Amino acid sequence: MTELEACDSCALNNSAQLLKLGINVDHADYVIALAGNPNTGKSTVFNALTGLKQHTGNWPGKTVTRAEGGYRYKDKKMKLIDLPGTYSLLSTSQDEEIARNFILFGKPDVTIIVVDAARIERNLNLVLQILEITDRAVLCLNLMDEALRHHIDIDERTLGKELGIPVIKCSAIKKQGIPELISTVHQVATRQIICKPHRIKGLSKPAQKMVDKLDKKIRKNYPGQPNSRWIAMRLLDADADVIKALKNGDFDQALT
Amino acid sequence: MKENDTQDLLDLASELRWEVGENFHDTLVEGIYADAAQIAQKTEIKQGEPNPYSFERKLDQVLTSKKYGFPIMILILSIILWLTIQGANYPSGLLARFFLEFLHPILKTGASQVGLPWWLDGFLIDGVYLALGWVISVMLPPMAIFFPMFTLLEDFGYLPRVAFNLDSLFKKSGAHGKQALTMSMGWGCNAAGVVATRIIDSPRERLIAIITNNFSLCNGRWPTQILIATIFIGALVPDSFSSILASIAVIGVALLGVGFTFLSSWMLSKTLLKGEVSTFALELPPYRPPNLWTTLYTSLIDRTLIVLWRAMVFAAPAGAVIWLISNIYVSDLSLANITIDWMDGFGLFFGLNGVILLAYVVAIPANEIVIPTILMLTVAHLNLMGAGDGVMFELESATETAALLHAGGWTLLTGINLMLFSLLHNPCSTTIYTIYQETKSWKWTVFASIMPVILGFLVTFLVTQIWQVFH
Q1: Which one of A46, A152, B194, B464 is CB 3.0 to 4.6 Å from A82, fit for a cystine?
Q2: pLDDT by residue (tens digit) across A187-246?
């Protein structure tokens, strides 16, 4: 019975797509992606979660390639993928493409979005874009110690309500907040927590209307597509990759 | 889903795109920014100090100022090199004494007791073992000092400031400003620097960054530079000043490398790789107090030991090759001697010699083993240990190395040219392989490998000509 449950949400569900992206999920129950702006301590969070010693540098663009690791929690094997740090998912540079394609086609069970607590506004730009693509995310409010040292605090409950996802305060370098992060990720992965992610509201009225129109059509063609609105916005922006993915049928497979 | 459904969807999208106009992208970005600002305003609690990063701003004003930025950069690099040169001397001597003076005779005795044939004993102990002992004693101490200090600087957040200082110079050379970062990475390891060029989006600027990365002195070459500078340039002044002068010489070579990076970037962007300079925003990350123990751990494990291991893997076969070419005789001369004599005339033309050239051929796998190879070949060439040995002389200190090199006919010119040639020669095999991996082009891989060697011969030739005018 538990096996059936596991198969509903487990990584194998999407293993063909993940394999295409070079991820072997043979022995993983859940796939967790780690995303965020450069220099927010993503690699430190990665190390804190996996116990690996990937070199971390105070250096934007440290993780140019994807790092992989894993950990176990409550008998579940979590596979963790450290994505390159990016400021947005809208342009076509190589690192943004890697991060974007992974969240879009790899469909991780949970995406941990690491943000710099002292620079919340700028970091939120990426968070909002990720939340358009996936509805299973946890916000890791990292570098809390540094923010507090600079007299900046964050009201994490309000932030959680605004974004519609769990928010965990962390200081990964001091291993603070990591246990809470691990258990929250588990709860999101097992659907004990259902996220209601924030949708971008600031569009102009006519633009909003276009998005809705296209969104409706996409949902008709691809019932159950969680990020139809985002695909609509990318199509309106003439995103060549998304157009190509539509033609290749990459979104079809995402459904099965 | 059916194909015509997809086509329907795409048609609708392009139809709507016409209606919404060109500025949808801007609308979207503005919408995201507005949402982000609103949420941030609701959740951010600022207390006390109105200007939370005032100290960092002041620090940035100094470290990236037009007036002090460069001098501070050079000063910091000088201090690190000076500490490395000063600090590595004693432990290097200690290790050399242990591996070469203490352990080597024991191994030899052991081998003869077991009854190993002379050629196997020579091949393994005088070839492979001595090469390994040499590499460890020459390389481990400077790396164990240099890498932690460099990593501390990196973790503190200084390197992006270096990139900021150099940014405008790169733009003037027709290259991408982020090349400053990949260049700094190259000071650690060129292969790592080449991989790091992935942060540059434009293929043209990325190729420039890949090809010129070799002009960043990598860790395999710092020990060569430091040792030769100590022997030939430090020796020009009284002892108390020698390590300072040696540091200055090494920094001079490193800066010359930066100069060659600019020059060759500029030449490439004017000839083979013409194109527009792309703009980008370089973010200065916050300063962070480095976590000392983590830094020490990662720099020792990730960098020092991995680089040392790589050096050892390449040094072992090189030691074997050196022993072989020193012990295989054609009529009366060993293969090594024949090659060295044959290359000597050509080498002297460039102010180098046959030993150096042969050492660079043997050491193509890794830069780290150039100095040990040169010493081994010099000993073999001079026949200091009698026929049949052809192994490394057991040297305890820079003074003894100096004595040996002088006996091999080395002059100040040879030293200077070796330093220049060590800066300007082909990348090591790992870097060449990485360049191919990143560019997937044999043409650019061959170009990136040969261009520096040609430049190296050109520069050493010019230096030799100028030297001869004054002597």
Answers
A1: A46
A2: 898 888 888 888 888 777 778 888 888 888 888 877 777 788 888 888 888 777 788 888
The whole-angstrom separation of Cα A240 and Cα A90 is 11
Those residues whose C-beta lies under 8 Å from the C-beta of residue A32, and which sit 6 or more positions away, are A78, A79, A80, A81, A108, A109, A110, A111, A112, A185, A189
Distance CA A203, CA B28 (A): 6
Reported pTM: 0.62
Q: Quick check: B234 and B246 in contact, CB under 8 A?
A: yes
User: Best of A151, A242, A247 to disrupt the B interface by mutation (most B CBs within 10 Å)?
Assistant: A151
Closest-CA distance of chain A to residue B366, Å: 23
Characterize the bridge pairing of strands A137-142 and A167-169.
Answer: parallel
User: What percent of chain B has pLDDT above 90?
Assistant: 12
Region B116-125 average pLDDT: 85
Report the gap between the CA of B193 and the closest CA in chain A (Å): 11
Verify whether the Cβ–Cβ distance B39 to A163 is below 8 Å.
yes
SS3 A114: strand
A56, A60, A247 member nearest B160 (Cβ)? A60
Smallest CA–CA distance, residue A234 to chain B, in Å, is: 9
The ipTM of this complex is 0.81
Q: Give the other-Cβ count within 10 Å of A5's Cβ.
A: 11
